[in-house]
Amino acid sequence: MGSGPRADPFPPEPSRNAAARMSLKAKITEDMKAAMRAKDAPRLSAIRLLLAAMKQREVDERIELSEADILAIIEKMLKQRRDSVTQYEAGRRQDLADVEKFEIGVLSGYMPQQLSEAEIADEVAAALAATGAKAMQDMGKVMAVLKPKLAGRADMAKVSALVKAKLGS
After folding, report:
1. Does residue 27 sit in the same domain as residue 103?
2. Final residue of a structural domain among 108, 129, 159
3. Counting beta carbons within 10 angstroms of the beta carbon of residue 81, is it exposed (0 to 12), middle (13 to 18) or buried (19 or more)?
4. Closest CA to 77 of 66, 85, 88, 65
């Protein structure tokens, strides 16, 4: 037998803060296992869609996803679902819209705390001052400053609309 370190057969009890320290990817995987045990099919389906999208990106780009990459994937999936809800409601398919709304709820649980309207307005004002933006042609510069700061913490479509309103006035 080797003299290397052996795994403790009785690992210590996880602390209450284990979930806070757990990576986002590990939390999603644990939530999938919990949904399987609870036989919660709709939740399991939404989590599996997310894990599939993450795995697809890892395989395509041959990378290990960072927390920011995972949040970008979740944000993209949320946007797709919001668009789908709009389309389904326009087509009077409330049953399909409800499924998408449920998935939005599941996916939103993995996003960081969203900023308030006032906090977003403060960030936009700071970005406008930092870039010296005065007209609509400066919007790209402003958004380039805001995107890394607000990604995952604010709906970028709303941020973009706010920047347009400030530059347009």
Report:
1. yes
2. 108
3. buried
4. 85
Residue with the larger pLDDT of the pair 99 and 131: 99
Planar angle of CA 54, 83, 163, nearest 5 degrees:
95
Domain that holds residue 151: 117-168
Q: pLDDT tens across 32-47, in order?
A: 999 999 999 999 999 9
- Radius of gyration for the chain, computed over Cα atoms and rounded to the nearest angstrom: 21
Question: In the chain, how many H helices and how many E strands?
Answer: 8, 0
pLDDT of residue 6: 54
Number of domains in the chain: 2
State the pLDDT at residue 88.
96
C-alpha dihedral (71, 73, 79, 85), degrees to nearest 10: -110
Mean of all residue pLDDT scores within the chain: 86
